[in-house]
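I hope you will forgive my troubling you with a question about protein structure. I should value your view on which stretches of the chain appear to form regular backbone elements. Here, with my thanks, is the record as I have it:
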Amino acid sequence: MLSTAAKATAATMAAVGLGLVAPVVASAAPAASGVRLCVDRFADFDAVLQWPSRGGQETFGIRPGQCSDWGPANPGELIVVLAFYRGATINIGHFSASSRGDDVEAVGRVADGTEGINLGV
């Protein structure tokens, strides 16, 4: 049987451990709404998210096989996805943000024609 002091120490250690784990888990996805862009690893372009209602604010260029950090998104807000390919900027799609957090994936190759590029929202 554990002594009262041992039980208190175990409870404190468990609480501290949960305190250290919880913020990491909570930051993995947005609390309410937000948006993140991932570019398929086989893509031949970099991409960014752009918020026209926020003065054209953009994420940093996301390379194939990478994802952006979570960005802001109000429900219904227009978000545009732009691709950069050999010096050209191509609008590959847009969507309205939801209230649950949008994980967007850009898939396809510009070399195969832009009609083959898909956005999974």
User: Anything to note?
Assistant: Confidence is low (pLDDT under 50) at residues 9-27. Residues 4-26 form the longest helix (23 residues). The chain has two domains: 1-28, 31-120. The two ends are 54 Å apart (CA to CA).
